[in-house]
Amino acid sequence: xxxxxxxxxxxxxxxxxxxxxxxxxxxxxxxxxxxxxxxxxxxxxxxxxxxxxxxxxxxxxxxxxxxxxxxxxxxxxxxxxxxxxxxxxxxxxxxxxxxxxxxxxxxxxxxxxxxxxxxxxxxxxxxxxxxxxxxxxxxxxxxxxxxxxxxxxxxxxxxxxxxxxxxxxxxxxxxxxxxxxxxxxxxxxxxxxxxxxxxxxxxxxxxxxxxxxxxxxxxxxxxxxxxxxxxxx
Length: 233
Description:
Blueprint: E1 2-11, E2 14-24, E3 29-33, H1 40-47, E4 55-60, E5 63-64, H2 70-75, E6 78-81, H3 93-100, H4 110-119, H5 121-125, H6 136-148, E7 154-158, H7 166-181, E8 185-189, H8 193-199, E9 202-207, E10 210-216, H9 217-221, H10 224-230
Parallel strand pairs: 3-8, 3-9, 6-7, 7-8
Antiparallel strand pairs: 1-2, 1-4, 4-5, 9-10
Helix pairs in contact: 3-6
């Protein structure tokens, strides 16, 4: 479904991604691991068009994305949930969700809205509440739900558990699995490596802008290097 080949990305003179390559098959849930500064967020921003690679290619189902504008990438089926729960605080929950469907006719959003409310019943209860007054967990549900309103083929999730209580983290991870089982391909960047590997099919490990390991999640969980660096020994 997605093939990334040798992408190099810079922040001015800083060489952030140094020939990163990986692939994701349709229907997979793939996790991207790495320490802070390894290039995980940069990778997601490049896939969604917020950054442009100087070299390399990004292919989504036979269509090149590396020179495509972000709004057009959304239209082609890629939705990005950035870290930090960036809701529109003065808009209601329902208005935030409708914003997520900007690339589609409003009259056609009914099935996606039903899907989001079934996935996150709390959002249905809070649909008239201003997003800025929601709890952290509810805001995380909202930004994921907002991305789903675009009816994505590929969902990019950046640190969805950050700053949340353990009980809410477990719920969010269950939601991510359910979204994947519903047919949405997922690329997950997550600080909680153990939980990320537990729900994913495969994984890649980034280190200083390079992919240094890849494999099935079970293989990475059993890898000494991964255990020592990301799984607490």
